[in-house]
Each structure stands twice: as C-alpha cells, then as structure tokens.
Amino acid sequence: MEFPAEHGRAIRLFDGVTGRLVFLPPPTGMLTLRLPWVAPEVRGLGQERLAAVADALLRFLVWKGYRVGVRYGFRGPYPREGGPFGIDVLGQPEGSAGPVEPLCRVVVGPVEVHGACHHDGAHRTGRVPTVADVVGGTLTAADVRFALLVAGHHRHPRRFRCADLHAGHGLFQDARVARRRLRLLVARMQPRPAPSFPALSRPAPPPPPLPHTYAAAMGGTPSTEAHWRGTAPALRRCDDALSRGLNVPLAFGTLYGSLRHGAASPELAGAAQALLPLGVGGDSGGGSPPSIGPATGGR
After folding, report:
1. Model pLDDT, residue 113
2. Is residue 292 within 8 Å of 38, Cβ to Cβ?
3. pTM score of the predicted model
4. How far, in Å, CA of 51 to CA of 291, rounded?
C-alpha cells in the first residue's frame, strides 16, 4: 500500500462484512461516511455510541489529510437499538465522476443493559436508557458520550447494570474527570483554534482543513527542541493506534499520558483538540449530540 510519508501510517479499518482489516486508499480522493438515520428523541445509548464513533472517525480522517463527506441512509437490514451498528466508508478516486465504491463497514458494538430499573422517574425496565435518563448531578451528556467513546474498543459490546448507569458510577465518572483534566492540559498549551466540525444532523460540505493535522504537526517547526523529542514519538504512537483499526481508547491514553507526564507541547495539544470532543477552541466537545438526521443522498 503506497501512502505519502508525510501522512504517517496507512490506515487499516476492520471490515465487518469480510471480517478482515482493509487498507484505505491514500488521501488523494474523496471519502464519504454513510450512517443510518436514528431520530434523536428515540436514540438509545447504543445509537449514541454509534454517533460518537462516527464523529471520531470523521475527525481522524480529516486529521490524516482526507476530504470527507457525510451521507445519511443505510444498505441492508436497518439497525435497531440492539445493534450492532455500522458506518459504511465509501471511496471515490480523485477526478472520478463515477459512483462511489464501498470500502468497508466499521462495526460499532451495542450497549447492553442488565437488571431491573428502580430509578425514580426513569425509563421502564426493558428499554435501553437514553442519555437524558443517565445525566444528572455532575455528569453531563458530553461526559456520557465521551465515556461511550473511550471506554473499550468500539467493535465490542459495552455491558452495564442499569443501577450503575443511573448512579453514574465507574467509567462515567472516570470519563468526566479525564475529559476535564485533558481539557485543562490542552488549554494551557494554547493551540491554534480548530474549526467546528459540521453537525452530522444536516447535509454539510466537508469540514474545513484543520490547522492541526498529522502532516502539519510532523512537518512544522517545533515549539522547542526538548518538547519535540517527546512530541514526535507520541504523535506516531497515536497515529499507529488509530490507523490500526481505529483504537480510540489507546490513542486517548497516549495523548492524555503524554500531555500529563512531560511531553506537553502545542503540537500534541492540537492533536488532542482535533481528534477528541473536548470542547476546546471552538469545538462543541459533544455538548450537543452529533445527531444522525433524516436520510439524504440516497441509499
């Protein structure tokens, strides 16, 4: 697989149709993410997880230098809350006027909730709760979505006891603390503002080029030589994690650990700002859910 050296490692995504890793073409043509439509008012936590993974994939592809669009619709049996869900990655060679070609289907495992619900005023037992059923106290909707993104690989199911969901224990509180700490670490480095990504709830042009991309960070002038000695290896480890099957938890751990323990730099903070929904520098940070809106663009 020929891949421009300045864009880092070639991307391999796990294809849920063939059950193997598939190489994406170099970032010279156009990629389109095709997502199923799920109305926000009926979206369960599994569908929220799908939206969070779709947002992460969009961010990563733009960070790697791709032009990316979004299409709404789905081929095959329509996914229900029980999942698993799928994000189709479609490709079109540069200069081609022909139809887009399916490259792979990124599978997102469901959220499985067990046990009776005894929470006052919450959903009935047997219905998977929504984000609105879970938030409260210090836990926000953005924290819940961040937890669904970074707690475990997206291909695997996430299992919870219903009582733990409503109490906000465990990974939700951990995600709340980690997200806030990472926001502070990024803000201290004062990276250049990143443009907001287009909402997945409406047809939108591809997002504008980010000031923070892998190629820009690796090819730019480092802030200091000492910082750069830690920054470049951290960026490569982050690129490796995401390019080999979109391992968001491993990439998050790399960015968080490097920024917190000695490798803080504007370049690394910019990567965290571009790749994760932190709410820094113009990014909504997941405060409003990346809605998957009415189908447009055909099936």
Report:
1. 78
2. yes
3. 0.82
4. 7
